Amino acid sequence: MSYGDKCIIRVSLIFLCWLPTDVPPESGAQLLMMLRCLRPLRIFKLVPQMRKVLREVLKGFKEIFLVSILLLTLMLVFASFGVQLFAGKLAKCNDPRILKRVLKET
């Protein structure tokens, strides 16, 4: 058992022995609860293939970021095109007192 496993087990045992009914913010009980959230990280030690998967996902973040930039650029282009194409044509007057549309000539 590694130091990390022993630490996680120790934190869990302390919390279970203490088992507070009320956990106020910024207290020791809240800190122990947050440290207990680290328990699922043990799977990376127990299953070596998970480390490999995580490593490959982290390597792929650069490509994912570049694809996201490309998609955002395309969305900006088509959004600008849509605004220019449909500007003012889809607007509707919601004032019941206005009966006809009058265009102002400038």
**What's the β-strand tally?**
0
Radius of gyration from CA coordinates: 29 Å
Strand content: under 5%
Shape: elongated
| Secondary-structure element series | HHHHH
Assign a percent range to the helix content.
Answer: 55-70%
| Count of alpha and pi helical runs | 5
Structural class: mainly alpha
Low-confidence stretches: none
Mean pLDDT: 81
Domains (count) = 1
Straight-line N-to-C gap: 82 Å
Largest sheet: none
Architecture overview:
This protein has 106 residues and is mostly helical. The chain has one domain. Helix content is 63%, strand content 0%. It contains five helices and no strands. The chain has helices at residues 3-18, 28-36, 43-46, 48-59, 61-86. α1 (3-18) crosses α2 (28-36). The N and C termini lie far apart (82 Å). The mean pLDDT is 81.
Question: Keyphrases for this structure?
Answer:
5 helices, 106 residues, mainly alpha
Topology (SSEs and partners):
Layout: H1 3-18, H2 28-36, H3 43-46, H4 48-59, H5 61-86
Helix pairs in contact: 1-2
What's this model, at a glance?
This protein has 106 residues and is an all-alpha fold.
